[in-house]
Structures are given as structure tokens and as C-alpha cells.
Amino acid sequence: MTVLVTGGAGFLGRELVRRLVAAGERVVSFDRITTGAGVPEVRGDITDRALLERVLREHAVSEVVHGAAIVGVTASVAGLADAVRVNIDGSVALFEAVLAVGGVRRLVDLSSEETYGHFTADPITEDDPARPISPYGITKYAVERLGEYYAGLPYVAARLCWVYGPGFPRRRLPHPWLEDAADGRPSILGQGGDQRIDFTYVDDVVDGVLLLLHADDLAHRAYNLATGEATGLRELAAEITKLCPDWHVDLGGGPLEMAPGVTAARKGALDITRARALGYAPRVSLADGLARTLAALETAGSTP
Ligand SMILES: NC(=O)c1ccc[n+]([C@@H]2O[C@H](COP(=O)([O-])OP(=O)(O)OC[C@H]3O[C@@H](n4cnc5c(N)ncnc54)[C@H](O)[C@@H]3O)[C@@H](O)[C@H]2O)c1
């Protein structure tokens, strides 16, 4: 009985591997890079179905968390063909390998609130319309539909939203502001003050994914895993100022620009009623999560 974590060297993958090992599970990580995580790490491309089949067989994999992807709106806009190849072709390779080898009782796919496109409800439920507008969201939603398409695939999508915490690898809020605050610099954001986001601390997401992985029966094919509350960027700035009174941000109004010319979808809170019924209960408040992330940045900054 082994859990395969694809994208196991990534931000969420590393944390999932760590928590699974701490819980006494056997784990194998599959990624294009290795981290020396102390578990078997297979280096390969997620589109390599033959290699995936070998890993599933050799490690007698019983559960899969699928996180290998080109992640984020900005990356998907910069490299659309690569996002399609890795996110869609890679997921198809994994799904077909799982079906060919057998023995997998659950496959949790790390999906995204980007599948909703502009939120049509706040909080948004899993049954509200999914009309993704970014290339990233389109690939993630295509994967969800393909996961449901394959008969017999034990697929479930975890829809995550703006996960943050120590070690986050991209420049997405709250991280750039926390980095500026830790370095004693002010921040500038020309527009975005009207954006609202369900920021979710990494530990809570991992809790939710582990619940989905281990639940006996699941009534649904998609579960929102967030906090159920959205924070406006002005409120976010106020929380960071409480931690770092000398920091401030020049923040314009309107929607957020993810990259020059790429406006974020209108967002809000994710309804987590479905996940709560499985026992999911986010534990880390925004204030605590920001404080923990800032402390990690300050510790890293003080390392010689
Ligand atoms: N972090 C978030 O806020 C968030 C929100 C919603 C969904 N997700 C999803 O969660 C998953 C993990 O995200 P993350 O934040 O840890 O990102 P990440 O970039 O840290 O992790 C992705 C991992 O996938 C690996 N990878 C990329 N291309 C690959 C390929 N061709 N073959 C094998 N491995 C490859 C990368 O090396 C990386 O380690 C992704 O599927 C992402 O879409 C994340």
C-alpha cells in the first residue's frame, strides 16, 4: 500500500509527502526534479505513461495525489502549449496508466478555483457553473472532465484556492508583500484593491487532501478545499501591517492584474460545506498563516 504523489517535489507535493510519511504511510514521489525527501523519488515527465505504469506496478500504488502541473495563470499564458501538454496530456497519461495497472482505490487531483472563471456566486459551490477563462483554468477543468470521463477511474478533484505558506515558489499574493515587509521595503500595486480571494494556508489544504485520499466513500467528484471566507486585498494589507507596522502598500482599486494585460477573474469565497461533511475544518486563520509565513521568511533571511 503506497501513495504516489505526482509533483511531489513542488510546494504542495513536498508538504503532502512530509505529512504522509509522518502518518506512517509508504510514499513514492514522481516529479521532473528531486528534492532528497527521504522517500523513493522517481524523476520523469508526467506524460511518460510507460514510466508511470512501471512506478504504479513496482511500488504497488494504492492511492494517488496528482499535483504535477504547469501551475498558475501567468505560467499558462506564457507557455500555453506546455500547459496543455503537461496538464492535460500528463493527466491522461496518468489516468490511463492507473486504469491499465489497476489496484488504485483513489486518485485525488489537485484542481483549482480557476475552473470557475468569474465567480457567479459568493461563496461559490461545486455545482455552480465552471466557465474557466484563463488557459490554466481551462486545462484544469479539462482534466476534471476527463477524470470523470474514464469509467472506473477512482477520481476526485480537490478545488484549491490561492494556497500560501513557507516555501511558496511563485510571485503571487500574499508572498510579494510579505517578502517586501520582511526586507523593510514598501510595496506598490497599481490595481487590485477590489479583488477578493479565499487565501488558504498550506496545512489546511494538506488536511483536506488527506481526508479525500482516505475517505471510504465519496458522494461527489469535486470538493472545494479553501477556508470558506474571502479577504479583500485592502484587508490583506491591513493584516500584514499589523505584523509589520512599518510596511505599507500603495494599492490602486479595480481587479487584480496577474501579469501585464492579464486580469484575474472575479473571485470570492469557496463554499466548503461538502468538505466539512467529511470532517474538513480549516484551522489556520489568515492572521496566523501570514505570521507563520513571515516568520519563515525572516528565518531564511537571517541564515548566513
Ligand atoms: N498553490 C496553489 O495555490 C494551488 C491552487 C490551486 C491548485 N493548485 C494545484 O496544486 C498542484 C501543485 O501546485 P504547487 O503550488 O505545489 O505548484 P509547484 O509548481 O510547486 O508544483 C508542481 C510540481 O509539478 C512538477 N512538474 C511540472 N511539470 C512536470 C512534468 N512535465 N513532469 C513531472 N513533473 C512536473 C514541478 O517540477 C513541480 O514540482 C498543481 O496541480 C496546481 O495546479 C495549486
From TrEMBL:
Residues 3-226 form the NAD-dependent epimerase/dehydratase domain. It comes from the Bacteria. Coiled coil: none annotated. Signal peptide: none annotated. InterPro entries: Epimerase_deHydtase (IPR001509), NAD(P)-bd_dom_sf (IPR036291). Belongs to the NAD(P)-dependent epimerase/dehydratase family. PANTHER family: DTDP-D-GLUCOSE 4,6-DEHYDRATASE-RELATED. This is UDP-glucose 4-epimerase. It comes from Amycolatopsis pretoriensis.
